[in-house]
Specification:
single chain, about 80 residues, alpha+beta, three-stranded antiparallel beta sheet, 1 helix, about 10% helix, extended
């Protein structure tokens, strides 16, 4: 890959493109009451950290949530 190729530029951007048609359909968790579904790409059971895809229907939403521990970490919400 040459330094001026589109692939090289993409690799430098740290962007990851995922073809969702290649994912196991059984891995999606449906949330029809909110109009979206979720697919976990990675989970760390020890820490609870995760990376997931969220796929929304038109009008889909996530209810507002305030993390009760956020102020302990210096995070504030507006």
């Amino acid at each position: 890959m040459s330094n001026d190729s589109p692939q090289h530029a993409l690799a430098k951007s740290l962007e990851v493109l995922i073809d969702t048609t290649t994912l196991d359909p059984k891995g999606w968790i449906e949330y029809p009451e909110y109009g979206f579904r979720q697919y976990f790409l990675w989970k760390n059971p020890a820490t609870g950290a995760s990376i997931a895809l969220l796929e929304y229907e038109k009008g889909g939403r996530i209810r507002h949530h305030i993390d009760p521990d956020a102020t302990c970490r210096g995070v504030t919400s507006t």
